[in-house]
Amino acid sequence: MIMNLLLIVTVFFSLLTLVVVFYLIKLTKHRFAWILISLGFLLAALVRILRFLNIFIESSFLSSPYLTPAIAFIVSILLFIGLYLIIPVFKSIKVSEARYRSIFDGSGVSLWEEDLYNLYKGFQAIKEEGVTDFRSYLKDHPEFVDKSIKSIKVLDVNQATLDLFKVKNKGVLLSSFGTTFTDKSRDVFIEYLISIFDGDIVFESETEYVDMDGKTLNVILKIISPRDKELGKHSIVSITDITKRSIAEKNLSSTLEQKRMLLRELYHRTKNNMQVIIAMLNLRSNSIGNEIISTAFNDMIGRIQSMSLVHEKLYKSENLSVIKLDEYIEELMSLLFYTETHGDTKIKLLLDLEPVFVDIDRAIPFGLILNELISNTFKHAFTNLDSGVVKISLHMLEDNKVEIIIADNGVGFPVGFDFQECNTLGLKTVFALGEEQLHGSIGIISLPADKGSSWRLVFTNTSGNPRI
Description:
Elements lengths: L1 H26 L3 H26 L10 H19 L1 H20 L3 E6 L1 H12 L5 H7 L2 H9 L1 E5 L1 H6 L6 H5 L7 H15 L4 E9 L5 E9 L10 E7 L1 H45 L3 H26 L5 E3 H16 L5 E8 L3 E3 H22 L5 E10 L4 E8 L16 H13 L3 E4 L8 E8 L8
Parallel strand pairs: 7-9
Antiparallel strand pairs: 1-2, 1-5, 3-4, 4-5, 6-8, 9-10, 10-12, 11-12
Helix pairs in contact: 1-2, 2-3, 11-12, 12-13, 12-14, 13-14, 14-15
């Protein structure tokens, strides 16, 4: 009975050895070496089995005194060759381990070696329950988060981690995972759990922890999660300290906000100063009896109003370097209609404006051009007419160019009129601003014989390079 039991145990361990050897064959490239070793173990097991069989079966072969030495010789040769061939494997493993330890311990980034095996088992269990929406599951089972935190084992940390968290020995961090958590890091951990459940391999997020002195640390957390729960027994987590960078970003943000406030205040004061100048010119204009001088004053007031409106739009804008040109045109036209229209002529305004953003370097000369052209239209285009229509179109063209067309159905220009030879200050200003400051092209696109006139201005928009 005992001999039979020993025979069974011998056969069992022989087969178990064979399974282990074949597993090693699967893991390494030196399969020939492992085959030789497995043959050696099989022959050794065969000798044991034959010796047991010799007790029950009388055979000259089994009882031969040369059987055991012969098989032992063959086994020793097989094991020697096999083990000799796999020596480089163990050397490679030793070198790889030394390299890993060197990188792990010498890294300037906080590294954590963690065992996530139990965490993976927990996910497998809830997936077997049929859970597909893990975020909803966490809302109904908030205790799963605490359970997950407790299931993670910290196996090792490097010196950079001890320095970062102000810890003198590893035992403090190895004993419990989550002792450095804050409310924010807990929320980030929940997102990490959701990413694992969804099958993501890499998780990265900004978060915060607290060191042993209670100081908040702003960090970037990066976790590479293997899909295999067996591989999850040794997962690496990196924590990069960005506390100084976060402080610098806050200081920079504060400085930029102060500059924005100062610039906003500058626009506001400039606009107010222009309004004061406009009020003074109005007073002086009203006190002058000469109509020609009074008209010149009013023209100057219109030009200043167009510039003042630019600063007002910038003051109210979220982006202190650009304004919406379509909104600016609407407000400027309302202002000009209020100040310029008079008499019995009824003028209708039609606007076809596409949303366009321009910077202050484009907005001010554009506003002056529009002011001059519209003012001239109101003064001269509808002479001896009961009504009229002014249409302004604003569109973006290819190559980031802006097109604006100002058209009216008034009396038009006289036959033979050469606007290039016109010596009026207004038209000289229009061409100077359009061609020299906006670096665009401006001209009349309707023929002199047509009813009314149409001005076309095209310039390149540079709002893609804001100042702030």
